[in-house]
Specification:
The protein is α+β, with helices and mostly antiparallel strands and about 150 residues long. The protein folds into 2 domains: about 90 residues, Winged helix-like DNA-binding domain superfamily/Winged helix DNA-binding domain (Arc Repressor Mutant, subunit A, Orthogonal Bundle), CATH 1.10.10.10; about 45 residues, Dna Ligase, domain 1. About 40% of the residues lie in helices and about 15% in strands. The protein has 5 helices and 6 strands. The strands form 2 sheets. Strands 1-3-2 form a 3-stranded antiparallel sheet. Strands 5-4-6 form a 3-stranded mixed sheet, with no helix packed on it. A hairpin with a 5-residue loop joins β4 and β5.
Length: about 150
């Protein structure tokens, strides 16, 4: 399930890989085969939202660990802020890279399950203004709009 913000270019992918390696090293995580495979796959897929099962299926052609290993790695990456997790109405969590330089949000169609990514400067300013008005220092935010897409 790929978003519409666009594919991640090589420079962004490489920057995210360096950022991920740095964060994992700082957290004391070793670079094992399963962790490396998941990180590299997510970097290649960019803004595609993938479930743990989809990631595991794509990695099965190589020599990586079990689906349980994929879940564990995704949990670690999420804790480190390296991936965004989007919980679908179908009960399936999907993941994409969290590019520290390009923030976006998601539109989720309740009927089809389609997920579209979007960026909106006005929304970002409004969120910052709300935080400021309430004396709240933001460390991050996620916006997921759910509804149905208009035909046409």
């Amino acid at each position: 399930m790929c978003g519409s913000v666009g594919d991640v270019d090589v420079a962004t992918r490489d920057r995210w890989l360096e950022h991920a390696a740095s964060r994992m090293t700082a957290a004391g995580l070793r670079t094992g085969a399963a962790r490396s495979a998941v990180v590299e796959l997510l970097a290649r897929e960019g803004q595609c939202l993938l479930s743990a099962a989809e990631i595991s299926d794509r990695l099965r052609t190589g020599s990586t660990g079990s689906t349980a290993s994929v879940y564990r790695v995704l949990d670690e990456l999420s804790e480190l802020g390296l991936v965004h997790r989007l919980d679908g109405r179908d009960g399936v969590a999907r993941f994409e890279i969290a590019d520290p330089e390009h923030h976006h949000h998601h539109l989720v169609d309740d009927v089809t399950g389609e997920v579209r990514s979007f960026a909106d400067d006005d929304l970002e300013r409004a969120i910052a203004a709300v935080a400021l008005r309430h004396g709240f220092r933001l460390s991050g935010h996620d916006v997921v709009l759910r509804g149905t897409a208009e035909a046409g």
